[in-house]
Design goal:
Bound molecules: glutathione
Distance between the termini: 25 Å
Radius of gyration: 16 Å
Helix content: 40-55%
Number of domains: 2
Structural class: alpha+beta
Domain GST N-terminal: 1-79
CATH architecture of the largest domain: Up-down Bundle
Number of helices: 8
Oligomer: single chain
Protein name: Glutathione S-transferase family protein
InterPro entries: Glutathione_S-Trfase_N, GST_Omega/HSP26, Thioredoxin-like_sf
CATH topology of the largest domain: Glutathione S-transferase Yfyf (Class Pi), Chain A, domain 2
CATH class of the largest domain: Mainly Alpha
Organism: Craurococcus roseus
Strand order of the largest sheet: 2-1-3-4
Order of helices and strands: EHEHEEHHHHHH
Strand content: 5-15%
Number of strands: 4
Length: 198
């Protein structure tokens, strides 16, 4: 098994953290630039996006949340869904909404127009980030030890990506509860070894 990733993608980080927490050896991880149409990536995944996982049989498995689904069935223990299921999935959905909105803005700004964030759609995505984080801050995922569930995982990935891409944005609000949550898991190898960087 190997995974094609890059150093910034929150989606790829979700998959990498989950794989590491489930005990997979990630030494075969290959960093690629999806925007440069790396031939190995295009061949495995017509969408040319990371994360793209290749099984030992050469089968591509793509889409971060499908990778989580596959993993949870493939290696049930330790589970990433231990705890109140409805709440965990609901909070993870909220965090994914924040991640999607951030990535949409970054793609617009980097690939289309430096002022894209100020367009009607860009401002709508900003609202999704602010409101999504407010909701998570008001009702933060709970971590009490063990392997963090997907609500914690996706929230911490969202926070670190926010720090990477929007650190100085004036519209970013303080998130003390989420920062405290992040501090609780930051030293776990799966998290510490995948902190995003440009
Ligand atoms: N829905 C996909 C999104 C993956 C995605 O958009 N990855 C970005 C990196 S953050 C990418 O590879 N973008 C290249 C492109 O859109 O062409 C997932 O959850 O895995």
């Amino acid at each position: 098994m190997r995974i094609l990733s890059n150093t910034t993608s929150p989606y790829a980080r979700i998959a990498r953290i989950a794989l590491a927490e489930k005990g997979f050896d990630l030494s075969g991880t290959r960093m690629v630039n999806p925007w440069a149409d790396d031939p190995a990536l295009v061949e495995l995944n017509p969408a040319a996006r990371v994360p793209t996982l290749e099984t030992d049989e050469g089968l591509p498995i793509t889409e971060s949340l499908l990778i989580l689904l596959w993993l949870e069935k493939k290696v049930p223990e330790p589970s990433l869904l231990d705890g109140p299921l409805d709440r965990i999935v609901s909070q993870a959905g909220r965090a994914m909404g924040v991640i999607d909105a951030m990535v949409h803005i970054i793609i617009g700004v980097m690939q289309l127009d430096p002022n894209w964030a100020e367009t009607r759609v860009g401002l709508r995505r900003r609202r999704s980030i602010v409101n999504g984080l407010r909701g998570l801050e008001a009702d933060a995922p709970v971590y009490e030890g063990g392997v963090p569930d997907i609500a914690v995982l996706t929230t911490v990935v969202a926070l670190d990506y926010l720090r990477l891409r929007f650190k100085d944005a004036p519209w970013v609000e303080p998130t003390p509860a989420l920062d405290a949550l992040r501090a609780k898991v930051a030293d776990r190898p799966a998290y510490a070894s995948t902190v995003p960087y440009v």
